[in-house]
């Protein structure tokens, strides 16, 4: 009998630290880490190009089809800056990472974001856009916000998620 393992969504505005946390969590729990941006790039799951943001448009249906079997099996950490494209049944818990906007601004500038792309992402954080999207897409009791400003926050979040994962596995096997 396969050990049942949870599916976790890490979401939040670009620059909040999803990837660092996700990779570290996968390394320490043995869950599978999937970065949707990388997956889309590797499989070319795109549906056109967004001139305004200078980036390809994600083909959401193909992404969902590609991952569905893996998600049904469980034990997956998904990292993406959106959340309403995924089926609700996929996730056992959803973490929305939050970063102070002045700090986010600096992180995004360091990544080469400029102009409208930079402004819109910082505004997205100010208006809690992703948090509200998550609260609408999933049942409220599985959605949690995590502060992600300092290396201490990262460490605390990591420990909390490891603990949650271990507890979930105990409770469901």
UniProtKB/TrEMBL annotation:
It catalyses: ATP + H2O = ADP + phosphate + H(+); AMP + ATP = 2 ADP. InterPro entries: Adenyl_kinase_AK6, P-loop_NTPase. Residues 110-120 are annotated as: LID. GO terms for cellular component: Cajal body; cytoplasm. The keyword rRNA processing applies. Keywords: ATP-binding, Cytoplasm, Kinase, Nucleotide-binding, Nucleus, Ribosome biogenesis, rRNA processing, Transferase. ATP binds at residues 15, 17-20, 111. Residues 35-58 are annotated as: NMPbind. It is found in: Cytoplasm; Nucleus, Nucleoplasm; Nucleus, Cajal body. Its EC number is 2.7.4.3. GO terms for biological process: ribosomal small subunit biogenesis; rRNA processing. Its main location: cytoplasm. GO terms for molecular function: AMP kinase activity; ATP binding; ATP hydrolysis activity. Belongs to the adenylate kinase family. AK6 subfamily. Monomer and homodimer. Interacts with small ribosomal subunit protein uS11. Not a structural component of 43S pre-ribosomes, but transiently interacts with them by binding to uS11. Interacts with COIL (via C-terminus). PANTHER family: ADENYLATE KINASE ISOENZYME 6, POS9-ACTIVATING FACTOR FAP7-RELATED. Broad-specificity nucleoside monophosphate (NMP) kinase that catalyzes the reversible transfer of the terminal phosphate group between nucleoside triphosphates and monophosphates. Has also ATPase activity. Involved in the late cytoplasmic maturation steps of the 40S ribosomal particles, specifically 18S rRNA maturation. While NMP activity is not required for ribosome maturation, ATPase activity is. Associates transiently with small ribosomal subunit protein uS11. ATP hydrolysis breaks the interaction with uS11. This is Adenylate kinase isoenzyme 6. The lineage of its organism: Eukaryota, Metazoa, Chordata, Craniata, Vertebrata. The gene is AK6.
